[in-house]
Every structure is written in C-alpha cells, then in structure tokens.
Design brief:
about 90% helix; about 0% strand; coiled coil; about 130 residues
C-alpha cells in the first residue's frame, strides 16, 4: 500500500459527517403550525383506524352472511325435496283414488247389469207362472 493510499484511508476513517443540529426553540407560529399538522395527522390516523375497523366489521358480517346464505340454501333444497316428494305421494294417491273410482264404477255397472238381468228373469218367471196358471 502506498503512502498516499494510506493517508486517504486514514483521512476517510477519521472524517465523520456531523448531524444537523436540532432546533430547540420554536417560534409561536412554528409551534402552532406543527400543532395543527399533528392534530390533522391525529385525525387522519383516527379516521383510518375507524375505517379499518368498519371494513373488518363488514368483512366479518359478510363472512357470517355467507354462512347464513349457505344454510338457507341447504334448507331451501331440503324443503324443495320434501315438497317434491309430497307432490309425488299426492300424485300416487290421486292415481290410486282414480283407479279405485274406475273399479267402483265398473262394479256398479256390473251390479246394475245383473240387477236388470235379475229383474228380466223375475219378470219372465212371473209371466211363465201366469202362463202356467192360465
């Protein structure tokens, strides 16, 4: 290492940059200005904190409402399924009733037919009895 490099290195290590001196006394105007800046920053900070709290609350409510919506959707599906099954049972019972009504009407027609035949036979028997008596 050369002497020049040694001296440069030594100079750099001994040289320190001094910080700017801080102001100890403010004028009244500077104090008022800084106080207003502080108060405005404080207000801004409070508003941001309230906004964050509001967003967090809304996020939680949204999350809860999402779950509530899922529950209601599932209940709706369940009720729809039950309604459909009841409609199917109703349709089956209606079909069964219609079938029974058809059978009853058929049996009623058959009964009426045999009643007429019986009446005809009884009439013819009476006519034969009258004919035998004469």
């Amino acid at each position: 290492m050369t002497i020049f490099a040694f001296l440069v290195k030594k100079f750099k290590s001994n040289t320190k940059i001094a910080p700017e001196p801080t102001k100890v006394h403010w004028t009244h105007e500077e104090y008022e200005e800084n106080l207003q800046k502080y108060e405005s920053l404080q207000k801004k900070f409070e508003q941001e904190r309230e906004a964050r709290h509001e967003r967090r609350t809304l996020r939680h409510q949204n999350h809860f409402l999402g779950f509530h919506n899922e529950i209601l959707t599932l209940q709706n599906r369940k009720l729809t399924f039950e309604k459909d099954s009841l409609e199917m049972q109703k349709q089956k019972l209606t079909d069964k009733k219609n079938e029974m009504v058809k059978k009853l009407k058929r049996e009623k027609r058959i009964c009426e037919y045999y009643k007429r035949k019986l009446a005809e036979v009884q009439e013819s028997d009476k006519e034969e009895e009258i004919g035998w008596k004469n």
